Amino acid sequence: MTRTSFLNLLAEVPTQQPTTTATHWFRVINSLLALGAVAQLGQLASASATYDDGPLWWGSFVARALLVLGVGLWLATLAPWRVASLTEQRRGRITAGISGSLAIILCVMMLIRPDLYRNPVPVFLSYAMFWGSFLQMGLLVKRGRTQMGAGLLLLHLSIYVVGAVGMPASGVEVIHILMILIAGLLIRWWAGFVVSVLLTMLLLSLASVGLAVPGGNPALIISYGLLLMMVAGVSGMYARSLETALITADEQATALRTAQATLQTQNQQLQEQAAELATQRERLAQQVDERTAELQQALAELRRSAITLQELQNPLVPIAQGAVVVPLVGAFDTNRAERFVSELLGGITQHRARTIVLDITGLTMVDTLAVKALLQAADAARLLGAQVVLAGVSPVVAQTIVSLGLELHTLRVERDLQSAVQHVLAGNKVIR
Hints:
Transcription Regulator spoIIAA; 2 domains; alpha/beta; disordered N terminus; 8% strand; disordered C terminus
């Protein structure tokens, strides 16, 4: 695992509400830290009479222990959390790096202390208080409270600086710079200036009461303060530009998430519409299949009806031995005439007819080709040995026959069907 990914793991901020199990362990850890702070306070109370580093140093220990206790109880009770922005994520990584570095430094300092092996419990408890505060900072970062964790780190360092006043080789100058960097980079870009001014005022106040501080006299303290302000200015400019860039990136990320959410909503709507269209298509296909089946059934019925109608259009009705009547009703066009000829000849053979009565009384329409087909049918019947009697000639048919110049010498013509039937039954012969 690389250093960057390790810091990302330490400073991972919540993107959704933590689970119940995570919140439970969060409360347990902070409760244990609060108990550790109580133990540290008890150890400090027992050692107060023999404490040789001065009241400020002892008071700073008490203040830090009370701070760990108070924060631990607050976190264990409320378990706060929130979703962090990109800026807070960046601050969380820096906070995790600083806290981890300080924890390592404190481990080294504890191991090289000569009194660790003579009296290990008090020494370990004093350093454990620092580690507990660093753990609380990490827990705050993990709960999305990055600025609060940075503020807690800054507060611990401030208490340490006050307690280290007058102590030799305390390294407060490095702590001063670290406090300015923490304030400017982790809280707000202008916070480093505020800390540098407050530190300068604090050093001047402590020097006025005769305590040993960096610089010693007011002029050097002011110069030292200006140096701290320069550090605050550089870190503030960097933090300002970085904060602006991260805010812009955060806004773009928010817009991107909004666009993605909109796109997902539209995609879901399209999927729902596609599913609805597929359902409608299936329903329509089913309706088409059902309608097609109905149409096919209707078409089959129409075909059967057409066949039946064709059979009924040119019926051959036997009226006597060897005599049949063929009544023609409706329109008699060329297509019907062709079927009529074949059906007539088939009927002559089937009934062994010698006399055919063609009743054309019911014809409503007849064309020239149909009249010719009637005469051709009569000629074909005569070839089969049957005589054709034409009954019920209408004026329209008569005009068509005359206009065509057709002769009916091969046919016997009767005025109506009754006359034709009487002639057939009487056994009269056809006029040639």
